[in-house]
Specification:
single chain; mainly alpha; 3 helices; 0% strand; elongated
């Protein structure tokens, strides 16, 4: 019975794990952006860093500014 329950719940567990991973990454990137600002980097420079390090498009990088 436990195995059957695990098989039923596995897709939902995987979905929650992925959502948690994405939120953790988003929070880490936001903290990095804050750190770059503390060091005096302007938005254009921060955007270029995000595009290079995370392979973001302009639009994706813009979301973090």
């Amino acid at each position: 019975m436990c195995q059957a329950l695990l098989e039923i719940m596995e897709p939902e567990i995987m979905k929650i794990k992925e959502e948690t991973r994405q939120e953790t990454m988003r929070e880490a990137i936001l903290r990095a952006v804050e750190g770059f600002r503390d060091l005096g980097a302007d938005d254009d420079r921060i955007k270029e860093i995000l595009k290079k390090k995370y392979a973001f498009s302009d639009e994706e990088a813009e979301k973090y500014l």
